[in-house]
Amino acid sequence: MVSLTALLTVWIWMQSQTALGQHTCPSTPQSSIDFTVKYSLPHFQTQKPIQNIAVNQDNEQVYIGYQNAVVGVNSSMNKIWEVKTGPIGSPDCETCLACDVEVKPEDPVDTDNEILLLDPDLNLVPYLYICGSTRYGICYFTDITLEAPAPQCLYTKERNSPTYCRDCVASPFGTKAMIAEDGQTSYFFVAASVNDRITQTYPRRSLSVLRPLSTEDGFEMVTNVTVLPGLRDSYSINYIYSFSAKDYVYFLSLQRENPYKNDSAFQTRLGRLSISNPEMWMYRELIVECRYEPKRRRRRRGAFKGTVYNGLQAAHFGQVGKDLADELRVAEGENVLYGVFAEVNKHGQPQKNSALCALPLTKINQEIEAGEEACCKSSTEQLSRGLCHFHCPCVNVFFLLVQNSDSRCTDKPTLVSKPYYRIDLFNSEMRNVLFTSVLVNTIGTHTVGHFGTSDGRILQVTTWCWAGEYAEVGMHYKVLNVDVFAMISMNPCDITSLVPSTGPGCAHFKTCPMCLNAPSFMNCGWCSGICSRQEECSSQWNKKSCGPIITEFFPKMVPAGGVTEVTLCGSEFQSALRPPIISSKTHIVTVGSGTTPSITEIKPDYGPLFGGTVVTLTGRYLNTGVTRNVKIGDKKKGTLSSIVCHTEAAEAVGELPVKVIIDSLQVNDTKMFSYKNNPVINSVFPNCSFQRYDTKLV
Length: 698
What we know:
Blueprint: E1 8-10, E2 43-45, E3 50-56, E4 61-66, E5 69-73, E6 79-84, E7 113-118, E8 127-132, E9 139-143, E10 152-154, E11 175-182, E12 185-192, H1 196-200, E13 207-212, E14 219-225, E15 238-245, E16 248-256, E17 266-274, E18 284-292, H2 296-301, E19 307-309, E20 311-319, H3 322-328, E21 335-344, E22 350-360, H4 361-376, E23 414-423, E24 435-443, E25 446-453, E26 458-462, E27 475-477, E28 495-497, H5 512-516, E29 525-527, E30 530-532, E31 541-542, E32 549-554, E33 564-571, E34 587-592, E35 598-603, E36 606-608, E37 614-620, E38 635-637, E39 640-646, E40 654-662, E41 665-676
């Protein structure tokens, strides 16, 4: 008899399909956001790149300036009027007919619209001010209440000359301007990039404050200052953004650290002028930086280094919502300057490595005042007042300002020597992105940012996750401008698109949990497998909970009569909560029943006692289930499957039953496997031969 230990047990031997390999849920989760989604948005396309945008909140109109034209469009992005500002000499040029200005034949003829400003009191003075790069930078105004606005000239020939021109405002190298009111008077605060030619013929100034005349035919010069003659061609100041708040007007610029060294590093500077006392001795400058400082555990590993983003690319001045206010440790609704920065090399070229910093205005002013006090404190080394490119020598005087016992130390222009910096809110995650524009507004408690990129995209982000996984709730959509009532310019694009602050849609959210976890102001819900807004859903729209999501399951077949673990891959197998929670559990286990495996053939059905015979078991559904004690494998033939195994050694000759164990099911059959005596070699004939490789033994 054959002992029980000699019973033949079939073990699965195939290596290609294993329980730990094929039947494992993917470790990489499915992407939850589709950044390739394109939205159809109302837009207006100009003939040339957009240079300036002014937004009228009162009548829901937008005024767009591009080379040789300014157009007005309504909230549907349809043109309502157009004013031609060039080319000079063209019969279509409407501004050319408004002023008597003699220009040189060699002067440029195409007009870049450098300044586009609305009057602060549109109810009394419904004017749009336009200042161009041609005709010595003179300005015009149009009445926007008219169906066909006609430009009026802010220039009088008799009051201006090639050596002194108070009505010459804009520079062709770039100009930023703000209008601020003090009492019943409006002042134009202007910052312009200049060179020697611009300052010598119908001169324009680096910084100037102008008051429009009541006769509406020009300006009165209040104060001005210009880069020193020896530096005008070598030391360029690129003015990027301007804004006003309460008592001051602010200008942001990019310029070299040292005006006397052409290879010195670039700095971002913030200049401040008083509205009530707009004199240059009240002028202040502050160096601002955006930095990334790695956490301590990262610093110890040495994998990350700190970064100084020295070059401002764009900025927006607005308020802060509660979510970001808590992070910045400021009051909700406080005024904040949002700036997108990049690393700028010694040639002034921005690199694709961007950052976002939020600078509270109260803190900016505190830093300026602290810098004033530091300059005025008695010490062994008196701090320089800086601004050597505006005045000389670099001491506590300004344009030979007479000092006497009555003059105060603080009544002098000052560059605060200590940089004021903030930390990147994106935590250095924008290493392959160059931001070119920014707009930030508040919706409820949320602070929502739109960021234009150099490749013509916009990233929308809610700030409650800026310090972490911003992309998990962000959207990236292919448009070229934002929100008609809160527009950002994406030069050199030529399309203005209307995008609500709530975003263009919800279709970029690919999963129900991500859809329902979107900020509430986006109004996203789940509709038959698609994230959408309720008005876009023709079936049941759900904003409260998500059902389980199954992406894969295995095995596909299980043996009847046994207990098999079935693995479901996906998410949300936990109870759906509100708001939904994305489960970290990737599979659940259940029991199943199904097909009935059977053995139909054993080939060969015999073998020697010492074992090692390769045996193929053929039958139905032998490839079902998950485990067969070792590994999984199958060889199918029609509806049949095969299992290949090696026999174990037996103790005695005889027939043994065959069984296959699939999961917890034992498959029995009447067919037997016979162990026979081990083969014995009695003789070899012939027992010799020639040395050839094809000799056969009989």
